[in-house]
Amino acid sequence: MALPLPVGLSPSKLERFTHCALAFRFSYIDQLPEPPSLQQVRGTLVHRALQLLHAVDPPAERTPSRALACLGEAVDELSAHPDLAGLGLDGEGRERLVRDAEVLIGRYFSLEDPTEVKPVGLELRLSAELEQVELRGIIDRLDLLPSGELVVVDYKTGRSPSIERARARLAGVQFYAYLCEQVLSVRPVEVRLLYLRDQVVVSGRPSEQSMRGLRQRALAVWRAIERACAAEDFRPSPSSLCRWCSFQAHCPAFSGRAAASSAGGAVVELPTPSRRELVPA
Fold first, then answer.
1. Helix (H) or strand (E) holding 201
2. Beta strands in 117-199 (DSSP E)
3. Nearest CA-CA partner of 135 in 99, 180, 77
4. Rounded to an integer, what distance in angstroms lies between the CA atom of residue 189 and that of residue 78?
5. What pLDDT sits at residue 257?
6. Which residues of the chain have pLDDT under 50?
7. Contact at 8 Å (CB) between 13 and 276?
8. What pLDDT is stored for residue 265 in this prediction?
9. Are 7 and 168 in contact (CB under 8 A)?
10. Contact 165, 143 (CB under 8 A)
11. Fewest 10 Å CB contacts: which of 3, 128, 131, 141?
12. Ordered DSSP codes for 22-79
């Protein structure tokens, strides 16, 4: 019996399937719970604080002190959320989490002047059909330039990538540019990643070639997902990323057993790779 297809394709789904098909299945088909991480919760706080900051009008009031007040609002909103409770932090741990978020918020102001930003979309949800699949995504911020052109901005709270990996990281933001082009009939002139931790900006200019590449890649990944669901064949891809995976207990690469799918799929048994294979030197 074939496994059910996930609903649509987003940048996170595309990236997860590309990195590890079995982790994709666990997350989006079997929908196994993933415990929250400190990094994820911190990122949620920072994203929400910056969303609130850019909603402030007039723009002249988007100051560092106002940003910290917005962070306080974000903390209050998240205080009852299961993700924060799931971290099991004591009072000191929560204070450290907020302090780390404050540092990232402060570094944001070295990357751009928010008083000069004109956002036309904050946490903007867009979706578009591409042949048989719905592409969907949430844009952190969509800016309108004085020229009338659009810029996609995405906040990152982790480390900035190496030069070799920067192009791959931009692929996810190109996904958002494609959605803008399809839904708003305007292709953004720039996609921009703001790495707050390292105070680095990575940017690119969407082109007809990059949009065509995005379409081809999205369709290729979706067809691979369809084949994997039809054959109930999702295999692990051991790599250095495994050390952060929350599905190790279910993964045959860690001597676990792949859980049966919610649709009643069979258990997948695969050889267990050596530690050397799991974590390259």
1. strand 200-204
2. 119-130, 133-144, 150-156, 190-195
3. 180
4. 34
5. 52
6. 258-281
7. no
8. 37
9. no
10. no
11. 131
12. HHHIIIIIS-------HHHHHHHHHHHHHHHHHT-SSGGG--HHHHHHHHHHHHHHHT
| pTM of the predicted structure, to 2 decimals | 0.86
H/E stretch holding 202 reads strand 200-204
Query: Residues near 147 by Cβ (< 8 Å), separated by ≥ 6?
Result: none
Burial of residue 150 (number of CB atoms within 10 Å: 0-12, 13-18, 19+): buried
Instruction: For 28-60, give one letter per residue: b (16+ CB within 10 A) or e.
Output: bbbebeeebeeeebbbbbbbbbbbbbbebeeee
* Measured distance CA(45)–CA(155) in Å, rounded: 12
For 145, the token pair is: 């330039």
Examine residue 58 and say whether the peptide bond preceding it is cis (omega within 30 degrees of 0): yes
CA of residue 166 relative to chain centroid, distance = 15
Length of the chain in terms of residues written? 281
In order of 87, 193, 252, 270, the CA distances from 22 in angstroms are 25, 28, 10, 11
Counting DSSP H helices and E strands in the chain, the numbers are: 9, 5
C-alpha dist (Å) from residue 189 to 44, 95, 135, 202: 27, 40, 20, 14
* Crossing angle (nearest 10°) for helices 91-108 and 38-54: 50
* Residue 61 phi, psi dihedral angles, 5° rounding: -90, 5
Contact 188, 150 (CB under 8 A): yes
- Reading across the β-sheet that carries 200-204, which strands appear in turn? 119-130, 133-144, 150-156, 190-195, 200-204
> Strand 150-156 to strand 190-195: parallel, antiparallel, or no bridges (unpaired)?
parallel
pLDDT tens readout for residues 159-197: 988 876 777 778 778 999 999 999 999 999 999 999 999
Helix (H) or strand (E) holding 222: helix 208-231
